[in-house]
Amino acid sequence: MDLFRKRSINELLQHSQKGNHLKRDLGTWDLTLLGIGAIIGTGIFVLTGEGAVTAGPGLILSFVISAIACGLSALAYAEFAALVPISGSAYTYSYATLGEFIAWIIGWDLVLEYLLAASTVSVGWSGYFQNLLEGLLGWKLPVALTAAPGGETEGALFNLPAFLILMIITFLLSRGISASKRTNNVMVVIKVSVVLLFIFVGINYVKPEHWQPFLPFGASGVMNAAAMVFFAYIGFDAVAAAAEETRNPAKDLPRGLILSLGICTLLYIIVTGIMTGIVPFMDFKGVNHPVSLALQVAGQDWMAGVVDLGAILGMTTVMLVMLYGQTRIFFTMSRDGLLPRRFSSVHPKYQTPFGATWFLGTIGALIGGLVPLDKLAELVNIGTLAAFTLVSIGVLILRKTQPNLKRPFRTPFVPVVPLGAIAFCVFLMSRLKAITWAAFLIWLVIGLIIYFTYSRRNSTLNQD
After folding, report:
1. Least-confidence region, from 105-109, 264-268, 287-291
2. Cis before residue 353, ω within 30 degrees of 0?
3. Which residues cross the membrane (predicted)?
4. At what angle do helices 100-137 and 301-335 cross, to 10 degrees?
5. Which residue in 206, 268, 279, 288 sits closest to 60, CA to CA?
6. pLDDT for res 155
7. 28-459: what CATH class?
8. Domain range summary for the chain, segments of one domain joined by +
9. What is the distance of C-alpha 141 from the center of its chain?
């Protein structure tokens, strides 16, 4: 039964105050921008094209379905984040409600999700950056340094831009949350401005007849696209990973989670409607820059270049937030003894998990440089959906086992909201490919080996 030993909420809070802890420097506005920084990127600038081919104009409904799954989960996250304002996100919440073994599984799962998400986006960023570099300055990198080996680019050996951008982001994160926060906030404002500019320009070229038929592939197409474009929302839960660095977690975290998700959902719906109104949906097949394509079809080539720049900034903030969330979860697992202690050491000057940041950032950069995009993108969604499911289960368990616990924020309409989140997430997981499940299970087996040979014995809870 020691597999399911738990930390009490009070014990978790006291433990976080001992030894290594992080600087509290984030408010509601910072957390909202952190969430928008994580969400608006590859989803809106790349996946909307593939989603349109799968669902047609009904892709709007696909985004709504994915947003409902995220929104219900966000309410569960908000209750836990306000109750346990500690780094670690779903890992920490699972430790308090479902026990150490389940917490390890979800933590190991999140390590895979965040790291591969950052690497995946770095590859997409590299493509946009190379296009912009060639368009503005006429510069082309040597083919050997433009992509990973084994992909579609013949003669490629290493994706240098993908590697370098993740190393630059690692440097920023290692210097402290304040510097990273300012960088993220500026880039988020710019990329949201670019999205709004697309809306104001593109709406004048919409042809309503392109929305007919609205559901060319029926409900099945909408559901398949929903499982695909769920990637567009991945990362909003990284806001919860910032709990230990938030000034007023009880108020700021719920607001940051819900505001960032709501703003991004609204933008996704409007952009999708305009895109499919300008370009017949089947014309997006094989296109990895659908927003730019819509503007080119509308004859607004100047604006297409601006969108490319917005895409680069958008993906940069996604990588920053993903790697940020990854390092904080790794830090917390190390502090709990489930990973080597060196990963929870805090830099005396910058007050960041310095070693963990450089370790993970370097691995992510190497993966981005050496692994093709299609191999990376398959594993990310399933980890997030599993985390959302476990957090929602945790809310139900804690409401039953500790009903009188003081909760600064309460998930409304329990048990309806958590059960709805579980149902949506499990359904979306069922729509993912078999190869995704197989790779996910292999990663879990590796995690189980580490847990039973190292983590279980060295756990702080076991030492106590």
Report:
1. 287-291
2. no
3. 26-47, 59-78, 156-174, 186-205, 217-236, 257-282, 302-325, 352-373, 379-398, 410-429, 435-454
4. 150
5. 268
6. 83
7. mainly alpha
8. 28-459
9. 29
